[in-house]
Design goal:
heterodimer; A: 504 residues; alpha+beta; 25 strands; 28% strand; rod-shaped; B: 270 residues; two-stranded antiparallel ribbon; 6 helices
């Protein structure tokens, strides 16, 4: 009896307490609810800690062939670093680098994610992983004050290369201060092995100062809204992949680049100068492989996977082919390939010779020759009666136009003139006797008595120097001296000009 | 038994007396209390609101501390009240980083100079201090109204110098040792350090996204991130206001951080 009574109270207490209705779980994804109760097959998964790497390196390929629970410990730190020579910026980082640490898991893994915001941080941060299926991509569940840590768990249901970034308001400023990185969810069968894998991510920085302006720069919201960044860089700084920090490979190796674009705004036209993307997964999708692409679009908040075999040595330049970004804003990196040359694939410069071009200077050999030939041609034309005749014929026709438009008024269409008024041209010895005199008369006119064909005329012929050009006068005189029975040489415009200059 | 009750009563009186000791004197209608500035009547336009919230909140005139509470002042407080000392405080009221920059319970040490703002204090601790000196914490509306003033006008939006200084401060990381208070330029109202020094607790920090009960609020998702974070916002280019609002949203009442301090306010009419 005693024993049952002493047991009764604790039993009763237990029953009463457990009968109290359980408090409804808070629906908001931001309120911690304690570790999730997993179904047995997930709870039994082997646990491993993710290897996180700093850019441009990636963790080794996953060799296991079954899922695991992967624990990711990612630290957020606000650090002052170098954006360009002499230019500092307070980067907000995942893992201390821009872009943040590279995370590598396998399709089907259970990812237990710990986001740790260092106590020295000024601001709260969170994370949106594009690999997550869930509100905010995790952002709602990872909102973390400085000096605190958040945990949430997700299943990596879909394979692919995914961007992650901070999604705390104001989002453009968080992303624009370097808070982006990538998580690779390997497909179940993995990717084919390659010799080199690299991690490169493009991003813009919107600084109050111009490109290259020295000192600690601050974020410029107006430039961000207008999408006018002074800096567009790879891996968080101008020159991050240049010189002794260049990517490396040897002739004959296959190279795979996991290339992402953190934005926050611009789309990238990714290209490697001197190489072709022999295999590419556009937008880092896993189903479709394209081949032999020169330049590929990488959306803001997106990625691509490119592969190629390097066949000749040299420096191959990674760029955003929106080319002022590469040359004026920093979107330029290098892949240095060492090894034996193969001049059959790429010969290098073979010959350097002089090229004069079509427009040679006057006085050069060819110009002299050209002038000589021209003179020869002119002489031949003149010498050849047929050609000369043709030219004269053309002049007579043109001269007729002039005559019948002007001179005929006095000298009549038949060249006979008007008796007692205007002298004839037909059969005029006066005309044909002195060629220079003829030109002079047409230019300057003539007044006073003149005897033509035995008759005297005394009128005034008006000057034509202001009315007719040298060519017209030459043509007209050629006409009159070869019409109505007249026969004479052609007059040239040069001859007329010489007289015109004389009598000016 | 009676003796025990009496001693308890006496100690209670002693504590309340100590709490009242720090109060500064002010007569009704007199000049602002020492170290405080009068902020005149104004209107606060909340950064975030649901369709049910008013778009403008009238803020009656009040007094605001000219600058944040210092290590020296907080030292006086913890000297007078045992339960707020670092080694004594309940984890319910302050987390493990409470007064982390201080060397000891009653010794701030070189990491916390006497004239520097006190940081690593929780909302509970800030409120307790405010009560101890006969004041209170400012509300979000009051704090933002005062902080929105530029150097030369009540609306700092178009005060270029003010905007530049504000964003330059935001670009800098948290210093290892905070500098002294009251070194920044006073704003239009004569208040200093509302930007340029530390973030500050407000009385209603946990309504940073909504007014009223957030779970019952159907108009606004409690935690809006990424693109949704700009939906419903008054001015998406005022990103300093976004940052303050984000910080307030991330905190719980017992949280402490290295860049978060506080200052006090008081009603005008008493």
């Amino acid at each position: 009896m005693n024993m049952s009574r002493s047991l009764l109270l604790p039993v009763l207490a237990t029953v009463l307490l457990s009968a109290a209705p359980a408090r409804a779980e808070d629906e908001s994804p931001g309120t911690p609810n304690g570790p999730v109760a997993l179904p047995p097959e997930l709870a039994a998964l082997p646990v491993e800690v993710a290897i996180l790497t700093a850019p441009p390196h990636v963790p080794p390929a996953i060799t296991r062939t079954s899922p695991a629970r992967v624990v990711v410990n990612l630290e957020v730190r606000e650090v002052v670093g170098k954006l360009a020579e002499g230019v500092d910026y307070t980067f907000w980082t995942f893992g201390g680098t821009v872009p943040g640490s590279f995370i590598r898991v396998r399709e089907g893994d259970l990812v237990e994610f710990h986001l740790n915001n260092h106590p020295s941080s000024k601001l709260p941060h969170n994370i949106d992983l594009h690999a997550v299926t869930g509100p905010g991509g995790g952002a709602a569940s990872a909102f973390t004050a400085p000096g605190h840590s958040s945990q949430f768990t997700f299943q990596a249901l879909n394979p692919g290369l995914f961007v992650y970034h901070c999604a705390t308001t104001p989002v453009p400023m968080h992303i624009g201060s370097g808070m982006y990185g990538m998580i690779l969810v390997e497909p179940k069968d993995g990717f084919p092995p390659v010799d080199r894998e690299y991690y490169v991510m493009q991003g813009e920085f919107y600084t109050t100062g111009r490109y290259g302006e020295e000192g600690l720069q601050s974020f410029d919201m107006a430039k961000a809204i207008d999408e006018r960044p002074p800096y567009v860089v790879f891996n968080g700084a101008v020159g991050s992949l240049v010189g002794d920090k260049a990517l490396a490979a040897k002739v004959g190796e296959t190279v795979r680049i996991y290339f992402g674009n953190g934005g926050p705004n611009l789309v990238s036209s990714f290209h490697v100068i001197g190489e072709i993307f022999e295999r590419i997964y556009p937008e880092a999708g896993t189903a479709l492989m394209q081949q032999n692409v020169q330049t590929t679009l990488v959306p803001s908040g997106g990625a691509t996977i490119v592969e190629f075999t390097v066949k000749v040595p040299g420096t191959f330049v990674l760029v955003d082919h929106s080319i002022t970004r590469a040359f004026n804003k920093g979107a330029l990196g290098m892949l240095k390939v060492n090894g034996p040359r193969n001049r059959a694939i790429y010969s290098g410069k073979e010959i350097d010779a002089v090229y004069l071009g079509a427009q040679a200077d006057a006085g050069s050999e060819s110009a002299k020759r050209e002038a000589e030939l021209k003179d020869q041609l002119a002489a031949e034309i003149k010498a050849n009666p047929a050609i000369a005749g043709l030219t004269k014929e053309a002049q007579i026709e043109k001269g007729k136009q002039v005559y019948m438009g002007l001179c005929f008024a006095c000298h009549q269409p038949d060249g006979k003139g008007l008796p007692g008024a205007f002298p004839p041209l037909a059969g005029s010895e006066f005309l044909l006797a002195d060629r220079e005199r003829a030109i002079r008369i047409v230019l300057k006119g003539l007044s006073g008595p003149v005897t033509v064909t035995g008759k005297t005329f005394n009128s005034a012929m008006p000057p034509q120097e202001a009315v007719l050009t040298d060519a017209q006068i030459a043509n007209a005189l050629t006409f009159v001296s070869n019409s109505w029975g007249n026969k004479g040489d052609a007059f040239t415009a040069e001859q007329v000009k010489a007289i015109r200059d004389e009598v000016r | 038994m009676i003796a025990r009750s009496l001693s308890v009563l006496l100690s209670l009186l002693a504590v309340s007396g100590a709490e009242a000791r720090g109060a500064s004197s002010v007569g009704a209608g007199a000049a602002a209390p020492a170290g405080m500035v009068r902020i005149p009547d104004g209107v606060y336009l909340p950064l975030f609101r649901t369709v049910k919230d008013p778009s403008r909140t009238p803020v009656p005139a009040f007094y605001l501390d000219e600058r944040p509470v210092t290590n020296a002042e907080f030292l006086a407080f913890v000297t007078g009240t045992e339960k707020w000392r670092r080694s004594r405080v309940s984890p319910l009221f302050a987390d493990a980083s409470y007064l982390d920059t201080w060397k000891d319970d009653l010794n701030p040490g070189p990491g916390a100079p006497p004239d520097a703002p006190v940081v690593c204090v929780s909302w509970f601790a800030a409120r307790a201090y405010a009560r101890w000196v006969g004041k209170r914490l400012p509300s979000t509306a009051e704090w933002e109204l005062a902080a929105g003033a530029g150097y030369t006008r009540a609306d700092g939006k178009n005060d270029e110098r003010f905007q530049l200084d504000l964003y330059a401060w935001l670009a800098h990381p948290v210093p290892a040792v905070q500098p002294a208070v009251a070194l920044t330029r006073p704003n239009f109202y004569g208040v200093r350090d509302l930007s340029g020094l530390v973030f500050e607790w407000v009385d209603d920090f946990n309504t940073a996204m909504v007014t009223g009960e957030s779970r019952a609020d159907s108009g606004l998702e409690r935690n809006l991130f990424c693109g949704a974070g700009s939906a419903g916002a008054k001015d998406t280019s005022d990103y300093a206001a976004f940052m303050r609002m984000a910080l307030r949203s991330s905190l719980r009442a017992n949280n402490t951080t290295l860049s978060l301090g506080f200052r006090c306010a008081r009603d005008e009419a008493r």
